[in-house]
Amino acid sequence: MRIVFVAIGAEQLGIGTLSALLRRAGHDARLVFNPALFDDRYNLDIPLLKEVFRRDARIVSEIVAHEPDVVVFSPLTVTYRWTIDTARAVKAAAPAARIVLGGVHTSAVPEVVIAEACVDAIGVGEGDLALPAYVATLPAGGPTGAIPNLWWKRSDGAVVRGGNSAFLPDLDSLPFSDKELFEDVIDLPSNYLVMGSRGCPYRCTFCLNNFWAELPDGEGGRFVRHRSPEHLLAELLWAKRRYAFRHVEFVDDVFTVNHKWLREVLGRYRREIGVPFSCLTHAKYLNDEVARLLADAGCESVQMGIQSMDEDYRRKRLRRVERARDVERALTALEKYGVRFTLDHIFGFPGEADAAQEAALALYGRFRPHRVNTFWLTYFPGTQIFREAVAEGRLTAEEASAIERGGAVSYHQPRDSDAASVHRYLRYELLFKSIPLLGPQLGDLLSKEVTARIPRPALRALIYAADVASAVRTGNQDMAIYARHYAREMARAWLPRRSPKPPGRENPSLTT
């Protein structure tokens, strides 16, 4: 069978894993990629430029040109609207192709997604076993019964719902992510994405893990699972030979959660891989020893969520258990060993005291992070904070329904209708973005009186300018990779796209 995966904006490791599983089963897996320039749903949303670079019709033509038996999407909430529009166009042009959606948003609102006329099947939860099982039935006409973690439609439109199975316990049973699928669209030598574990020990009320961990029916097994050091290093050694990568990015939810595993992985990484890397961590899982291990192995930066510095609010409303002393201990250890750190901060939590922003400003001014990633609270379907917003009237039923269908969702747009509150948050956003560049004394220059006179569009422009200037000054690796990706895709935007040849079998894990 020929399966076409559709990705938007960036490499998606989940798609890579599913492609590798299907290729290992003998199927033909291909990729169509939408770079979504200036509309990437994460950093940039510039209406004029995104219209100039919009290639929706060409994306549909590329999908159809592959003559697929199955077309697979894995949307986030912020990409769901585009996904459905694309799926409808593909179904109209190639009605025999089966349209399958999976991933986070689909799993959060399966009833909404399966109700779309263009959708033939959906994955709910981990799809490692479900998608290959579904594809295996298609040569004989399709499934006849329930498939765990998958819903599918009969010819009369009736939906067959498979139950949700326990989380896959053995990650070593999976092949390496199919990097060859992305070779023509992602600069893999510049930054190699890899995941050594799945799952997070926490259930923050605003995060996908808040509901994802609860998806299995009955006993779900361990949610946090690790690949063995041997399996993970085997992939990195293969990829180092193939791509000669210059940087590795571990995208585990909390890379440092298992210290025994970390010691073995980083010891071997230092000896056998030896290139700079970055990772995600959590204050509760980063102490002096961990910071030293990271530094010795070549970690150049870590990313850690702060989100709010109101300790009581953070614990009661966000289900974040770290205390201020945990955060300070972690940052002190990173400073001691020279590991740069990026901190995440969210604006717009309902009921959060204004003093939380001043406390955050004091923390960031004291420790001078490499960058502060700022986000506005985004209500994601399925999460506790989404349900509370509906129950407490912060979201109307109409607004909630619109979000479930992918409307009006952005990481960087405020929902607060109080202009004064938004302006206050924007001032803090400018201060946070400027700290790596000019230090905490900037707060004296950008007083409330000064910023109150700056129009909101100008304030936003200053925020972008401060972020870029700070990145240039500090040599921010993430920004550099992002800029190179944009430059490459802008150069290719007006050129006819060649359909990449189907991947071969260079990935050694496809035969095991």
Structural description of this entry:
The protein folds into two domains: 2-168, 3-Layer(aba) Sandwich (Rossmann fold), CATH 3.40.50.280; 187-377 and 416-490, pyruvate-formate lyase- activating enzyme (Alpha-Beta Horseshoe). The chain has 512 residues and is α/β, with parallel strands linked by helices. The protein has 21 helices and 15 strands. The model has no long low-confidence stretch (mean pLDDT 91). Helix 3 crosses helix 4 (77-93), helix 11 (288-297) packs parallel to helix 13 and helix 14 (355-367) runs parallel beside helix 17 (419-438). The protein starts with a strand and ends in a 20-residue tail after the last helix. The strands form three sheets. Strands 2-1-3-4-5-6-7 form a seven-stranded mixed beta sheet, with helices on both faces. The protein has a six-stranded parallel beta sheet with strand order 8-11-12-13-14-15. Strands 9-10 form a two-stranded antiparallel ribbon.
